[in-house]
Model the fold of this input.
Amino acid sequence: MLGIILCGGQSSRMGSDKGLLVHEAKTWAQTAFDKLSVINIPIKFSVNEKQQNDYAKVFANDVLIVDNAALNIHGPLLGVLSAHLQNPNDDLFLLACDLPLMETNLLKELFALYQQSKRYEACIFTNNKEQEPLCGIYTAAALQKIITLQKKNKLTKHSMKFILSKLIVCEIALHESQKVYFRNFNAHTDINGL
Done:
């Protein structure tokens, strides 16, 4: 298994790269890396081409996976499939960099569930019955299935929720007290009081 910190968003509403925002002396990307490190797996950062130079100043180049433009896909799925193509035999544990409140116990819970059941192609959390696809585990076989759909021009949408509709998914419903861990930050006003 390989951990993938998803940093490749456009951060258009934030106005600056979310992964490189600093909180408590660490970038959000580093914070996500540290949290996912509790699983004890190798971890890489998914970035887009425009971000590569900035991230290379902070992280070693060999832990950066740059979006594969040849895929002609947009959104987080581009980062996920780019990571899969570079590491086709690895299941991927995804964690978005803009979930700075994520709790390591949740990551451990997801990993334990993945280890217990091999019949699922993806393991994710749900928040008020809504899927949270950017903190989840996706098997190599599942991602290969999506690549095959893309090659056959059957990938009609590029959203992660559409991808999940094509997979056998294990869902863990978040308890009310856990929902805060998935709070997403999109603008500087959201960060006040973090």
Residues 184 and 190 are 8 Å apart (CA to CA). DSSP finds seven helices and nine strands in the chain. The chain has a mean pLDDT of 91.
